[in-house]
Amino acid sequence: MKEAVFVKRNTEKWQEYESTPAHDPDRLTERFIELTDDLSYARTFYPNATVTRYLNGVASQFHQKLYANRREDRNRIAAFWKHELPLLMFESRFRLLYSFLFFIGACILGWISAAHDDTYVRLIMGDDYVNQTLENIKNGDPLAIYGGTGQADMFMQITVNNIKVSFAAFALGAFFSFGTIAILFQNGIMLGAFQYFFFERDLLLASVLKIWIHGTLEISAIVIAGGAGLVMGHSLLFPGTYSRLESFRQGAKKGMKIVIGLVPVFVAAGFLESFITRLTLHPVASSAIILVSAVFIVWYFVLYPRKVHRESMSA
């Protein structure tokens, strides 16, 4: 069967499935089976066609709805972390990649700007912070600023602030993604300038082993929150077959779920910054914490979603 004939025969059915959601679990299951059958056919005969990608996206949405409508309500939270969030991360993988690239680009820009302008770090970080850090360097403890506040107060302040930043990165995606990109650039430029400040004083390794104890989780979560903002912005820019309002509603819902899923990551980052970063750890211990944090982020938000997606397609 030619692709055009296949699409023409099934378009009305697919549109009905999307426009009139089924709330009955049995009916939802029937539709999901029909969609996966169509997807299997499309993968066999039109593996690189637009219709195959379209059916893959619709089938993923129905798979998520099936989990949302399961009768085991007591397992709802577990299902969110085990299936729903990973599937959302897989669906949003390209937005996550764009967020990462925007952030890395801003870091490079911040580093280069600081290297060519002696006043740039003060402009970005503020005179008080720079002066305090220079004083700490003279006293032999360049990162003493992390031990200057009570642990419990510092934990609450840092965690709340990080969550605010993540929600801002997401919410500003409503401005057709431009607000999210601005947040990513702001934080990326700050990080690049900050790291160059220590590099210039031959303290880059010391700063990395100290700051990235918590920064691995914190920065990764901001980038992922930026990806959530781009999901919402993308839904406005490219509504597809939906009305712009309906597309925005779905994009906002998906992005919000991703941001909510990041809250434990920010809590963990706040704990590390408040209770661990201030300690004088052996480089091996610092490296181990950074490595474990990085492996977790890559596994749960990049690799595990691919595994869950493959399993959902073969189910």
TrEMBL record:
Membrane-spanning intervals of the chain: 96-114, 165-185, 219-238, 258-277, 283-303
Short name of one Pfam family: SpoIIM
Keywords: Membrane, Transmembrane, Transmembrane helix
UniProt source species: Runella slithyformis (strain ATCC 29530 / DSM 19594 / LMG 11500 / NCIMB 11436 / LSU 4)
Origin: domain of life: Bacteria
Protein name: Stage II sporulation protein M
